[in-house]
Amino acid sequence: MKNYLRFITCLCLVIGFVGCGPNDAPRLAKAKGVVTLNGKPLPNVGVTFFPTGAGPMAIGKTNEKGEFVMMTTNPGDGACVGTHHVTLGAAEEGSSEFSSVAQIPKKYELPTTSGLTVDIKDGELNDFKLEISK
Hints:
disordered N terminus; Immunoglobulin-like; single chain; alpha+beta; 4-stranded antiparallel beta sheet
């Protein structure tokens, strides 16, 4: 009887590990870009990609040139393949870098109102120019 219980326990563990393999993870592709406001780079701004399908959101932060690189769980790992709604806002909660964020019209803070979308493609250069205006 003990051997039977050991066998069942081992079988359950093996099935559990197989179900958690890398094939269950969403397909990611590298994604980067630049955010400009009226043609000028927008520094210290948070960029968020919300997938329209299944998968985790991706985040990035613009540098002094308005450039960003997206990530999900690891720096630079990209975003899920597919279409995403994009939002722009504060790069960090409690950030003291409010000059750039204050310039962004409120409509860009929500995925339902921003009007910004990107399509992440597998195996391609996903380099986006997000041009916004006041």
